[in-house]
Structures are given as structure tokens and as C-alpha cells.
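Exercise (ungraded).
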Amino acid sequence: MIDQIPLSYYLLLSAILFTIGAGGVLIRRNAIIILMCVEMMMNAVNLTFIAFSRYLQSADGQIFVFMIMVVAAVEVAVGLALLVELNRHREAVNIDEFNSLKG
Amino acid sequence: MQEILFFVTATLCIVSALGVIFNKNVVHSALLLLINFCSLSVFYLMLNAQFLAIVQILVYAGAIVVLFLFVVMLLGADLGEDVSTWLTGWNAFLAALAIIMLTLVGTSVFESMTQGQSGNFTPDDVAKYGQAQMIGITLFTDYILAVQLAAILLLVGIVGVIWLARSDSRDLILAGKALSNKTK
Amino acid sequence: MANFIWLVIALPVLGALFNGILGRRVGYQVVSMVGPAVVLAAFLVGVGAFIDVLNHQGEAIQVHLWTWATIGNFNVPVTLLVDPVSATMVLVVTGIGFLIHVYATDYMVHHDHDHTHPDRDFARFFTFLNIFIASMLILVLGNNYALMFVGWELVGACSYLLIGFWYDRTEDPQRAIEIDGAESVSIPSLLSPAASGMKAFVVNRIGDVGFALGIFLIWSTIGSLEFTTVFEKVHELDHNTISWIALLLFVGAMGKSAQIPLYVWLPDAMAGPTPVSALIHAATMVTAGVYMIVRSHAIYNLAPEVSLFIAFVGAITAFIAGTIALVQVDLKRVLAYSTVSQLGYMFMAVGVGAYSSGMFHLVTHAFFKACLFLGAGSVMHALHDVIDIRRMGGLKDKMPHTYRTFFIAGLALAGIPPMSGFFSKDEIMAKAFEASPILWGIGIVTAGMTAFYTFRAIFIAFHGEPRDHHLYEHAHENRSAVTVPLWILAALATFGGLLGLPAPILNELGIPIPHLLDNWLKPVLEIAHAAEHGEAHHLSFMTEVVLLLTSSVVAIGSVGLAYFFYVVNPEIPKNLARTTRPLFAVLANKYYVDEIYNSIIVQPALNLSKTMAQGVDMVIIDKGIVDGVAKVIGMIGGLLGDLQSGYIRHYALATFIGALLMVGYFFFR
């Protein structure tokens, strides 16, 4: 069963999703939304991997996606835990209020 | 048939993605993200990656989005920001232009990178042995080290989250706060 | 036994390790057993090696131990060479070294109302002495220039360590010399031991640079440093190169053996403990230069101009040092200048090609000068470190053993027949006369001065009325650890002449006594002998006898003059000092050589160092380069720090821009 959809369609969709995610990271101030956008970017990449895996008929891309999912799960867990912790003390999730890394 | 499914799902995917970033309500954003993830799993199915499609639903929709919702619940849903201050028509036009330009550039670059090594993961084999089984064999033979590392990573993540969630870790963060107040 | 010759080096090293590591813990009695014992053992091994060489008819024995370094075709074997010359040196070094070690076991202990106070660093002293013995033996036993250089530097280091042994003592001002009816002559104060050690070390470095350059030149022209190879191939070189090698090696000898212009360190080296002065700065280390030239005679035979230069440097040094010794008031300095003077004789000998005569004088000088120094030390020990002869007097009854041995050794130094010094010095004089009557003339004048100043010191210190009654009352003869070595050395100083009786004269008179040392060294110095006989330029019997008689008369006359001046009529030297006060002041101030060196070399060097340290190093390098680099980096850091806004969005934007640039690169490539 050879798929009818060309590879470039998937790549284009993936690029659009990635860019939307990146834009979200840049324009939103809510830390939760930013984390969501990061997840979205990762998913865009996952889509690319799977598309290539399909067209190259190789399982490696899917393994990558699997690993990315593991990392994403951990990342979200830790990131949200940090967020909760930050919110406890700053009573805010607005990242513009956190600039103590200023040099 | 396939194309129709693709374009419908793609539209759903892009719209929900835009909804995530342009929505004022965080709960709505999270729900739109759920739609986005589900539509991606449709693509995975279309790409003959049934195992990952299920994992996508389980992990992203079932775990991650729920986690987001939990956090929103913990922190209160009124954390949204006023999007109207910066979301003007001109800005939206520019953003759309940028997105289109970037995607075109990105796609053409990715397209030029298709000279990868072909594998033996043919649809026939998949039909014969089953998707999940083949992934499992590859995962636990060629990529066993990566699996082990992923396991360790998960463990570290669990420990880290537990430590962060402990009540007495506040002291550390208070110290950080005092420091940042001083530098202000 | 010669195959075990490495033991003579290993034993003192072992002793040094023991004394250095455990010395403080085991107490001074054990150290005073171990220190001399290892040297005695080394001496016995040396005697064994000596007998071996005797049985081999003087054939050289090479004992290869290991190869030190092989880089390309540069090869430094650690091979010990046992031949008549080195065997003689081994015996002198270990033999006299042993006697001086024994002497030092008492000298380094202060006796005070039946209490004994060993020196604070008793063990350190014996550690250094043992290291010195080992180093000196490396110097004389090495079969190549590299090993010799190692020993050469090691003895220099030991000399430095031992001169500055009492590093916490300060400069010692000397009382001005008063002259009745004229202004008194002020004399410079004695340098502190630490400063003296540094002076010796630095002056020796100047010579060592020359020596090292000479070795480099040998290596680059001949391609080997082993004596046998070098001496075989040296005649293939052109005359200029040979002369340069000879001259550069002699510069090293100038430093080590205190010849003009590098002799200035030796008198100040007397700041060290007296056994050190006796062992290192009279008997052994300072003769290393003479040994080196005797060893390299194959080179010097091919460089007659340099040899003649050496002879004249030696003669002039002998004369200058002799004149300074005439008016010194410090007993050890009289002896120190006398050492410089006698070393001048040795260089005169080797300069005119009389290598065995040089060695002969080296050996006899080691005997009588060690004895004199130890005698001076004995006096110091009895007088609680007073060394100014103006505070002594009349000591001959208080210290009979010291007086007698000092007198005997003084006779030997003065060259009174039939003491050892007479034969060795006369041999040099005869050989010098053969080469150039001018050398002989300088030599005979110096010989007269030698006799005079030696007995001037003896008469002032031991005869007459005590000048410092307090000191006189406390003076006492030392223990047997001091007096026995003195007597042994005095005996050697008396009978050492038997090693080299004037064979030409005796044979002429029908007494078939050979020149023992000459015959013994002949295998090594064969080439030199061949050259000598080739010229067939021998003095007639009558000339020899006349020279012999002349020097005897001069020596005895000078002793008589000293007796007349300082015992019979003490007014004469005072009047003489008054009438010739300017000359007297110049001599008492050692021709102001130290002051001249200080103003033309030391001060400019110090100023240059100061400029380099404070100007170049502290300002340009420290402030300019080092601090500058830090400041520039700090400035860049400050500028880059402004980029760190602390807002996550900015970092994310930067990351995306970077990613975009990479994508753009692939796109537009």
C-alpha cells in the first residue's frame, strides 16, 4: 500500500506547525502556553521523522519519535513542577517577571 | 480519498495550533492542544505508524495535556493575558507572512535532504509481522542502550519532580528570590 | 677492587642519606661515627683501586655502570675511569677528607665546662660534607666531560651550601689597622656567610659558563665527550678550534680554582666552617681546575699559546695573592690568599707543560694547606671563633700540638728543605725556568713572600706576648679528634716530598732514586712526556742545583726576615707601614678589587635586574600583558553581559535566529 500523499505535504505541514509553535514561544508570556508551544514544536518534528521513516521504509525514525516522546514527557513533568513551584513564590506565571538571569 | 483526509486533518491541525497561541483562556488552549495532538495521530496512522499513533494519544493526549490541565487547575484558570493588546490586524498579517516564508524555506531545505538510507521496514513486512512487534524488536535489539538511557532519564525526571514538589524545597527558592531582589 | 670503584661514590652518598634523613633523630654521636666511617670505607676502596692500577702498570681501567643519556649520537655513559691520575685524586680526596671529617666531629661541637653543645645543624653539616666527597669523586672519576661537569657543578653547589652553612650569621666588621704616627687603615668588613656563599656561587657560574661552552665546542667538533675519544681525535682539529676549547675550559678552571680575575670568591669563602675551608677551599675542590687541565693535557699540548697564557695567569695570580696575604689580619684569609697563590703555582706548572709537577704540588699542597687550615680552626675553636691575629699571641705554650703542626705545615708551605712543599715548588720553579725565566722570576719573588707571610702569621699568633689576656686565659689545647688529624697531616706535609725527589739531581749525584709520582703518572701523561723529551730542552745539572739553592736561600731568608720583623724587632713592620701607608692601605684592601668589581659589574647587573624586575616585568609584563589580557577579557565580558537581559523570550529568539541562519545557510548554499 503505497501512500498517495507526497512527502513534501507532510514536510510543509510540519514546518507550519513548527513555526506556529516557535511564534507562540516568542509572543506569549504565559509560561504554561509556552510549554504547550514547545510540545507543539516537538510534535512537528515527530511528524517529520515519521514521514521520513515511511518514505525511506526505515524503523529508525519511529524509534527517534519514541525517544522524543519519553523526553517530552519528562520535560513537561519537570517543567510544570518548576512552574508550580515558581507560582507558589511569585504568584505569577508571566515569564516577563522572571529576569534574575540578567547579566 | 487519502488527499481529502489529509487536507481536512491538516486544516484542523493548523487551526487548532493557531488557537493554542491566540487564545486568552488557558483551559481552551489546552483543549485545542489536545485536538492538535489527536489530528497528528491521524497523520501517523496515514503514515503506517499505528503503534506511534496509539502512543501519541496515550502519552500526549492522555498524560501531557491532562498534566497541563492539572497545573492550570492548581494555579487557577484566570492566568490568561490580554491578547488584544498585541494582536492587531497588522501584526497578524506580518506574523502570517513570516510563518509562510519560514515554512517555505524550511520545507525546501528538508526536501533537499531526502537522500537517506532506505531501510527494510517495508509495508509488506509490517503487514506480515505487525507494526508494534517490529518496532519492539528494533527497540530492544539495536537501540537497547537508548532504551536503558531513557529509563534512567525517566527515573531522574521522577526524582527531580518529587524533589521540586517537596514543601521544604521552598527554602531554596526563597533564597533565590532574596538574591534576585537584591540584584534588582 | 677497581671494579668496585663505584663504591667510593656510593658510600658517601649512603652516609649523606643516613645523616640527612636520620641524622637529627639518632643524635650527634652516631652522626660523628657514620660521617667519617663512610669516607674511611671509601678511602679503603680507593686504596684497593690504587693497588689494582699499580698491578696494571698504570693502565686505565674503565668501569661502565650504565648509560645516562642517549639522544641521537649524543651518548653520555656513566663510566668511571680509574687511572693513575684519578686514583691519586681519589686517595687525596678520601684520605684528607676522612681526616677532616674526624676533625669536624670535634670542631662542630662546643665544649663548655664539661658540657658539650653540638652545632644546631650537626647532621646537616655531615650530610653536606658526605655529598661533597661523593661529588668530588664523580668529578675525578668520570671518564667523559659530561660526567666531569656534573661533578664540577655538584661540588660548586656543596661549596655554596657549606660556605653559607651558618646562614643566620651576619656581616662581621673588622677593626681598622692602627699605625703609630699615621692614620689608621680601615679594612672592609667580612661578608656574612650567606652573602659569601652567594658570591662564590655566582663567580663560579661565570667560570662554569666558559667550561660548559668548552664542552659544547668539544662535542660539536669532535662528536664525543669521552676522554679517550676526544684525546685521540683532538689533533685532527684546526689550531684555532683547539685554542678556543683550551681557553674556554680554562675559564672554567679560573672560576673553580680561583685564578685572576675570578679569584675573589675564595677569600670570602672562609666564612664557612673551617673544616670546609680545609677540605673544599684548600685541599680538593679548588684543585679541580688543575686536575681538569692535567686530564686534558692532550688538548693543552696542542695549544701552546693558551698554555703559556695559563702559566702567566698562574704566575700573576700567585704574585698578586701573595702580596695581599702579606698584610691580612685574619688568619684564615692569610691562608686563603696563600691558597690562591699556590693554585697559581699549580697553573704555572701545568701551563708550562709540567703536568706531573702540577699534580705533585696539588698533592703536597693538599697535605700542608689542610694542616694549616685545621690548625687555624683549632685556634679558632680554642678562642671561641676569634680569627683576628691581632688578638692572639703567645699561644704556642697553650696549644703545643696545634703550634707544632702549624709550624711544620708552615715550613712546608714556605718551601723550606726538606719539607714536601720545597720539592714540589722547586720542581715547578725549575720547569718554569725552562719555559721562561720571567715566570721563574715572578715565582721566586712569590716564594719569598709566601715564606714571609706564613711565618708572619705564625709569629704573631703563636709567639710574643698575649695581646688579649681574656682570650689567652681561656685558650686550651683541643681534643685528640682535632690534634690527631693535625699530626697525621703534618707528617704527610713533612714526608710528602718523598713522592717526587728531584731525580735529575740525585741521579747525577749517583743516587738512583726515581721520581715516584712522575713514573706513576707517566702512563697517562705519556704524550706530554714525549713532547717534553722531543724538545730535549733540559736544564743542565748546574742550573738545577743553582735554582734549588736559590729557592732554599730565598725561603729560609724570608722566614728569617719574618722572625726579625715580628719577634726580634716588632717596630720595623710598624715603621714600614707608616712610611708606605698608601701601598699598605691598597694591600690591606686587597687592591680594592671587590670594590672595582662591585662598581663596574655587580652594581650595573643589579641595576639592570632591578630595571627588568620593576620596569619590564612588573609594568610591561605584569600590568601590561597579564593584567591587560584580564582587563580586555573583562571588558568583552561586560559588553556581552549586556546581551543577557534575563528574559527567556530573548534567549529563545536568539536560538531561533541561530537556527534560521543555519537553515538559511543550507538553503542558499
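Further reading is listed at the end of the chapter. For now, observe: The mean pLDDT of chain A is 82. DSSP finds three helices and no strands in chain A.
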